[in-house]
C-alpha cells in the first residue's frame, strides 16, 4: 500500500486525513509517528505559504513526498482574526483558552454578525516537482457557548447552518463531507493521481 507522510503534529487533523485517504488505499503517517522531527517555523504570511513551509521542511529532511495542511478560523467581525494565528490565539495549541478568547472578543457582537469561515490550504511537495496546492472553505457562525464533544480546536463554537450542527456535533465522516479540510482534499485528489506517478 502507498504511504503518504503528512507534516502535522495535530492529532485531530491526523485522524481526519487517515479517514479521508482510506478509500484511496493510501496509508497516512504523520509527524506524530516520527521520533526526530526538525523544527518547523510557521512564519509565512498566508495559509498556503505556511503549508509550503511545513511540507518543504519535512520533504527536504526525509526526501519523500510530503503533504501539509495549514488551516484556521477567519471571523468577519474580528477583521479575519484569528486566521493564520488560530493555533496560538490565546495559548499555544490550548483549545480551551483559544475558544474562551474568541468568545470574549465576540461578547458584544450580535448573532447575525458572528459569521466566520474555516479555511484550509493543502499542499503536496516532492523534490523536483511543482507543488500541488488546493484550498477549501466552510462557512458558518460562531455560537455564544460551545456545543458538542467531537472534533478539535474551534469545532464546538463553529455552527454549520446547512446541517444545523456545530462541527463538534458531527461525526468524523459528516464533518469531512463539508469541512474546509474535506473540500480542499477532494479538490487536491482530482489532480493527485497524475501528480503522484
Ligand atoms: O501545524 P500542524 O502541526 O499541522 O498543526 P496545527 O494545529 O498547528 O495546525 P495549524 O498550524 O494549521 O493551525 C490550525 C489551527 O486552526 C484551528 N483549526 C484548523 N482546522 C480546524 C478544524 O477542522 N476544526 C477546528 N479547529 C481547526 C485549530 O485551532 C488549529 O490548531
Ligand atoms: Mg501549526
Automatic annotation (TrEMBL):
Catalysis: reaction(s): dITP + H2O = dIMP + diphosphate + H(+); XTP + H2O = XMP + diphosphate + H(+); ITP + H2O = IMP + diphosphate + H(+)
Binding, substrate: 8-13, 71, 152-155, 175, 180-181
A UniProt-annotated Pfam family: Ham1p_like
Residue numbers annotated as active site: 70
One BP term from GO: purine nucleoside triphosphate catabolic process
Any GO CC annotation of this UniProt entry: cytosol
UniProt cofactor(s): Mg(2+)
GO MF terms, alphabetically ordered: dITP diphosphatase activity; ITP diphosphatase activity; metal ion binding; nucleotide binding; ribonucleoside triphosphate phosphatase activity; XTP diphosphatase activity
Binding-site list for Mg(2+): 41, 70
Gene3D superfamilies linked to this entry: 3.90.950.10
Enzyme Commission number(s): 3.6.1.66
Xref: SUPFAM superfamilies: ITPase-like
Keywords, alphabetical: Hydrolase, Magnesium, Metal-binding, Nucleotide metabolism, Nucleotide-binding
Assembly and binders: Homodimer.
Matches recorded under PANTHER family: INOSINE TRIPHOSPHATE PYROPHOSPHATASE (PTHR11067:SF9), INOSINE TRIPHOSPHATE PYROPHOSPHATASE/HAM1 PROTEIN (PTHR11067)
Role played: Pyrophosphatase that catalyzes the hydrolysis of nucleoside triphosphates to their monophosphate derivatives, with a high preference for the non-canonical purine nucleotides XTP (xanthosine triphosphate), dITP (deoxyinosine triphosphate) and ITP. Seems to function as a house-cleaning enzyme that removes non-canonical purine nucleotides from the nucleotide pool, thus preventing their incorporation into DNA/RNA and avoiding chromosomal lesions.
Annotated protein name in UniProt: dITP/XTP pyrophosphatase
Annotated organism of origin: Ligilactobacillus saerimneri 30a
Amino acid at each position: 500500500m502507498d504511504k503518504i507522510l503528512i507534516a502535522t503534529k495535530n492529532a485531530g487533523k491526523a485522524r481526519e486525513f487517515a479517514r479521508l485517504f482510506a478509500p484511496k488505499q493510501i496509508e497516512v503517517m504523520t509527524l506524530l509517528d516520527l521520533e526526530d522531527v526538525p523544527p518547523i517555523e510557521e512564519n509565512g504570511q498566508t495559509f498556503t505559504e505556511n503549508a509550503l513551509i511545513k511540507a518543504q521542511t519535512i520533504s527536504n529532511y526525509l526526501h519523500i513526498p510530503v503533504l501539509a495542511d495549514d488551516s484556521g478560523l477567519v471571523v468577519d467581525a474580528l477583521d479575519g482574526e484569528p486566521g493564520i494565528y488560530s493555533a496560538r490565539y490565546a495559548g499555544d495549541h490550548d483549545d480551551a483558552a483559544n475558544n474562551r478568547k474568541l468568545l470574549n472578543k465576540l461578547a458584544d457582537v450580535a448573532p447575525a454578525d458572528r459569521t466566520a469561515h474555516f479555511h484550509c490550504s493543502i499542499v503536496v511537495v516532492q523534490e523536483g516537482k511543482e507543488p500541488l496546492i488546493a484550498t477549501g472553505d466552510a462557512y458558518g457562525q460562531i455560537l455564544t457557548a460551545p456545543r458538542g464533544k467531537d472534533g478539535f480546536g474551534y469545532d464546538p463554537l463553529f455552527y454549520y447552518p446547512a446541517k444545523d450542527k456545530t462541527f463538534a456535533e458531527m461525526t468524523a465522516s459528516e464533518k469531512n463531507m463539508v469541512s474546509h479540510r474535506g473540500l480542499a482534499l477532494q479538490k487536491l485528489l482530482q489532480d493527485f493521481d497524475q501528480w503522484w506517478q
